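Quick question, first post here. What does this chain look like in 3D?
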Amino acid sequence: MTGQHQGDHGPAAVMPQSAPRETPQEQAAEWFARSLHDGTVLDSPAFHAWRSADGANAAAYDALGSLWRSDAFGAALAASVPRPSSAAVPGRRPVRPVWMAMAAAVAVAVSVTVLADGLRHAAVDRMQALFADHATGVGERRTVALPDGSRITLDSGSAVDVTATPAGPRVTVLAGEAYFEVQPVAAGQSFTVRTGDAEVRVVGTAFTVRDGSGAGTDVSVAHGTVAVRSQRSGESVRLEAGQAAAVSPTGRVTAAAADPDGFAWVAGRIQFHDRPLRAVLADLDRYIPGFVVLLDDDLGDRPVSGSYRLDDPRAVVRALAEVVGARVETLGDHLIFVRS
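> Answer (accepted):
Ran it through. Tokens below.
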């Protein structure tokens, strides 16, 4: 903190008075957030006294350091918050100013885990408050009946806006994934689903639409027929039951076979066959408040198969870790690490 540093690091390095209930993780979060703003804190007698007072203190601080330097955690944050221009910080890889501000907020909230959970909910909360007619929180699924008898099932962390138009219902997927069961419509009418990248028109069918929040849109058809069109390029494709399409942000539309396991979440399950562990953990991460962070690239390449209920996604993470011989460690209630 410019202008406050003194030679003995005294006033700038005094640990805030802690309530007795503060855990080593919470105290470590305070020290860590302050060190990001003023690196001299780590040279202070107060910090060294706190760190050496209890082995749990040192372990908690080291865990936060490992998390902060982890490319996996950086990728998780990148997927959850907008990232402005880079700012160089001596001694570590470039970080974004907004991340620094969030880390400083840890010292106020006294919890890195609560911060991570807040990042996770931020995008959907904004959509829900501004535009969404229907939304779900992390780990929640909900089915909505429309006036025409069609049904929309929202997956974890999803939001949709529903509009009645003269041409028929129009649904905008604002975030996450939704499964549509569309009733047959009258001649000249259509049921339309939109994302930022794609438009899907149907007459009567069941299909999923997954908005990639800037990474494109995926459409999979369970039965019936749909027409998928890029909002950007106008390129389109007609899909039958068992087919899928990916619409990229640049407008490219690519058709492929639909993954039958991709519909399992509608029934409250997650299924996968010979998928890389990192891909499965990324899917599970959507159902867990906070983050699941894979700290071992080799583990991430291991193929796994299974069918699990989504009632307890943390238990699924533990089960998969046991299958591949990995360890699961937690930091608070919102951070789960999978490592060798």
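Residues 112-130 form the longest helix (19 residues).
The chain has three domains: 11-110, 132-259, 268-339.
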